[in-house]
Design goal:
Blueprint: H1 2-17, E1 20-25, E2 28-33, H2 36-54, H3 69-74, E3 83-88, E4 91-96, H4 99-122
Antiparallel strand pairs: 1-2, 3-4
């Protein structure tokens, strides 16, 4: 986490000094820079991503997390119901754990699309 924050600090310093330019292509932000701030910023963020990815490899599995079969039978079983909407442009992708939640998510998607259509006209 420290490398990521340090990289962001270098990026901000580079933007404030004019050595790094920022922008957006569709919805993707990008940074273009030359100089020490850009170099150290990219190196720190790259190290942070590597540490994040490889930090999960050597995690020991604790014996406390393993459940014996006789304890499993006595535990109360619960179920989680959920759903969501992913908007890629105007195209909604709706998912849910059952059909009632999926229908609710479809209604939510329609409300969001209508709001996105009308909201810029009123601002």
């Amino acid at each position: 986490m420290m490398f990521f924050i340090l990289g962001l600090v270098f990026f901000v310093l580079g933007v404030l000094s004019g050595k790094i330019k920022t922008g957006f292509i569709v919805v993707f932000p990008f940074l273009v820079g030359s100089g020490v701030y850009a170099l150290f910023g990219f190196i720190c963020v790259f190290i942070a991503i590597l540490l994040f990815m490889f930090g999960f490899i050597n995690k020991p599995i604790s014996g406390d997390l393993q459940v014996r079969e006789d304890e499993y039978d006595t535990q109360k079983k619960t179920s989680v119901k959920g759903g969501g909407v992913v908007l890629i442009g105007p195209v909604p992708i709706v998912f849910g754990s059952n059909w009632k939640i999926a229908v609710l998510m479809m209604v939510l998607a329609i409300i969001i699309i209508v709001a996105m259509f009308f909201l810029p006209r009123f601002l």
